[in-house]
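Form P-L/3: holo structure prediction, ligand guanosine-5'-monophosphate.
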Amino acid sequence: MNENKNRGIIVIVSGPSASGKGTVVSRALAKADDVRVDVQLSVSMTTRGIGKGEVDGETYYYVSKEDFEQNIADNNLVEYNSYAGEYYGTPKDKLEGWLNAGSSVILEIDVNGAKQVLAQYPDAVTVYILPPSFQELEYRLRNRGRDSEDKIRYRLAKGRDEIPEAHWYDYILVNEIIEESADDLLCIIRAELSSRRHIEYKIDEVLATYGKEEDQQND
Ligand code: 5GP
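OUTPUT (holo model):
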């Protein structure tokens, strides 16, 4: 469907706060080379404060509300949403460059952002990370010690409202063991790169080589 046939794929990863999706994604990125998966992470922009153990430019680009709104006005974002009173969005600049260079790109974004991306990139693959239970989710939220009691309640309620949306995602990973979920995510990307909808163009490319001399094939 795309003009450039060697493009990578967009992999949208969503899941409630503290489902462990950030850790799953970073473990998958760390292992990607070993299994020959060429994948990049899209670093989102946010107005929320920097959390414990987070790094500006790696976890998020942390910006002011004014800067974020300027980026919206300048059409620099593929999608954006507000969550718990803060903006989150996907910068446009790097995404297209990576896709055109043949890398796949993981977007760790919420359900609302996923819908906006799918409207522009219908071939994007969607993966939902489910926590094993709400008890486990609450434990993880408390354990990371980033949020006030109010925010924890808010995030749990948000999770309950959001999880039914997992019904329309292509893949669902129940995140019990981080390493297994990370391996599964890489398997999904590899399988999708071989899916007919992604690689069907190769059939005609191969057929076009029929009967040609070897030295003409690379013209
Ligand atoms: P957190 O504050 O826990 O890092 O993220 C809160 C929510 O915002 C999560 O559901 C996360 O997936 C989502 N999020 C992070 N980056 C983006 C983004 O660029 N766009 C959208 N729409 N959501 C995002």
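COMMENT: The first strand starts at residue 10 and ends at 14.
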